[in-house]
């Protein structure tokens, strides 16, 4: 296959600080490591990813157990459907200590955290990791999360995005509130920093009034890169305005190509360079030393490990709707779609993937909890590299968010068998370009919005 692009694939590892990966049966895979409560577990995975020159490992998060199904977390606990979510600050600190180049991303909610807290967390991580932090912006999912924060009901979709717009404005201004040369550290004179270069932001908005400045000086990247995964029309517009990496959930290559074209047009309309924003679909890779071995693994993963109630539990969490009174074989009707906010896009995506026709709750749930959730590349290292190259060179994506079928083996197999093939084709780096995540992604370091322009500096 001839090379169609002069850039290289962006590789992101999709992580959970949990008993499972995003694939809810992963904990049952025979070689899955059970020590997910030990920091060395995350350090081992991080070192494997750095060996494979991944750009970034980023952690998904939820602020509640899945508890919409049956009004209880019982089934999530019983079947291991993501009941465990560790605090990401400690996890990323451990990963930072074990690596020197790998980017470190975390999910923090704009609905339940204050912006000052988020700004300080990521500025601190960026300093302590030497410039490798990234923030995955989410507006959170459901009422179970709301109730853990003393709120009876989750905010409506559009209001969550209105709040998120203000939230990210506050965070970026706080990140900028120290100019790059503010610290003097003049021990002789006793002057630590120049107060004229440390700014109160005095943000006044509908949702937030924040004085500032941040208590953390400007970090190595200036502003850590932003990850965003909005799939709705509003979410795609938000991503076009703010995101450096857009995490997509396209069920097939045809859908991914359509999404890629439309999202890049939105980025242009937002006044940004479309080449500077990466679209990265979530995929699974089932790798084997032979195709037969890979297909045997796929069969186990598809058919033996995910309990149907785990799938329905996770569908209830995603849609904020209790499916405990339904049968798995119930058809997803227009009436049902109209009664559940936010489910329409999911159903449409599944129908496009299946080529139309009837969709049952079993099918819909399996597309949220099993290997049907995203495209999967199955085969030897060479065969998987062929599939990834085809997606990349046909502008279906700018790279991939690789989800694990099990930890840590899925990433170990990929690095051992697929990475050498991608490197051989010039599609993946052999070494990191720089010390910061922005350098490795080829992203410019933004100037502080409070710094004087060239003209102002000349007049000073």
From TrEMBL:
rRNA-binding in keyword set: no
Organism: Pseudofrankia inefficax (strain DSM 45817 / CECT 9037 / DDB 130130 / EuI1c) (Frankia inefficax)
Record-stated family: Belongs to the NtaA/SnaA/DszA monooxygenase family.
PANTHER family hit by this protein: ALKANESULFONATE MONOOXYGENASE-RELATED, C2H2 FINGER DOMAIN TRANSCRIPTION FACTOR (EUROFUNG)-RELATED
Domain Luciferase-like, residue spans: 34-394
One term of GO molecular function: monooxygenase activity
Taxonomic classification: Bacteria, Bacillati, Actinomycetota, Actinomycetes, Frankiales
Chain positions recorded as FMN binding sites: 61, 107, 157, 161, 232
Record Pfam families: Bac_luciferase
Protein's UniProt keywords contain Lyase: no
Record InterPro entries: Diverse_substr_monoxygenases (IPR051260), Luciferase-like_dom (IPR011251), Luciferase-like_sf (IPR036661), NTA_MOA (IPR016215)
Name under which the protein is recorded: Nitrilotriacetate monooxygenase component A/pristinamycin IIA synthase subunit A
Keywords for the protein's UniProt record, in alphabetical order: Flavoprotein, FMN, Monooxygenase, Oxidoreductase
């Amino acid at each position: 296959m001839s090379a169609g692009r002069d850039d290289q694939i962006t590789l992101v590892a999709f992580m959970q600080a949990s008993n499972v990966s995003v694939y809810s049966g992963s904990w049952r895979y025979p070689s899955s490591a059970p020590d997910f409560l030990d920091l060395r577990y995350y350090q081992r995975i991080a070192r494997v990813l750095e060996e494979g020159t991944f750009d970034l490992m980023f952690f998904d998060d939820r602020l509640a157990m899945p508890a919409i199904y049956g009004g209880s977390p019982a089934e999530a606990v019983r079947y291991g459907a993501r009941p465990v979510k560790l605090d990401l600050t400690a996890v990323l600190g451990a990963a930072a200590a074990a690596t020197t180049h790998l980017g470190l991303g975390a999910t923090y909610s704009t609905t339940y955290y204050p912006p000052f807290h988020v700004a300080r967390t990521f500025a601190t991580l960026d300093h302590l990791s030497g410039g490798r932090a990234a923030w995955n912006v989410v507006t959170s999912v459901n009422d179970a999360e709301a109730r853990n924060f003393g709120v009876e009901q989750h905010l409506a979709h559009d209001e969550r995005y209105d709040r998120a717009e203000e939230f990210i404005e506050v965070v970026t201004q706080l990140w900028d509130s120290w100019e790059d040369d503010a610290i003097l550290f003049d021990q002789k004179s006793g002057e630590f920093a120049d107060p004229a270069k440390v700014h109160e932001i005095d943000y006044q908005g509908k949702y937030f009034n924040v004085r500032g400045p941040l208590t953390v000086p400007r970090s190595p990247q200036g502003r850590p890169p932003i990850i965003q995964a909005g799939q709705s029309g509003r979410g795609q517009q938000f991503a076009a305005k703010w995101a450096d990496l857009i995490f997509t959930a396209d069920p097939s290559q045809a859908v991914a190509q359509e999404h890629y074209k439309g999202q890049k047009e939105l980025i242009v309309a937002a006044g940004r360079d479309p080449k500077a924003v990466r679209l990265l679909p979530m995929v699974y890779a089932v790798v084997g030393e032979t195709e037969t071995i890979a297909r045997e693994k796929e069969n186990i993963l598809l058919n033996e490990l995910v309990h149907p109630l785990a799938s329905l539990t996770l569908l209830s969490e995603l849609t904020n709707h209790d499916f405990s009174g339904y049968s798995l074989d119930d058809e997803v009707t227009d009436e049902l779609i109209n009664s559940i906010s936010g489910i329409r896009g999911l159903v449409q995506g599944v129908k496009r993937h299946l080529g139309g026709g009837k969709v049952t709750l079993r099918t819909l749930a399996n597309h949220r909890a099993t290997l049907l959730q995203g495209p999967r590349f199955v085969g030897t290292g060479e065969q998987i590299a062929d599939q990834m190259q085809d997606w990349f060179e046909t502008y279906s994506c700018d790279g991939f968010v690789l989800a694990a079928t099990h930890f840590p083996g899925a990433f170990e197999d990929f690095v051992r068998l697929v990475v050498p093939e991608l490197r051989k084709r010039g599609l993946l780096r052999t070494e990191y370009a720089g010390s910061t995540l922005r350098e490795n992604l080829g992203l410019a370091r933004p100037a502080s919005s409070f710094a004087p322009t060239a003209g102002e500096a000349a007049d000073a």
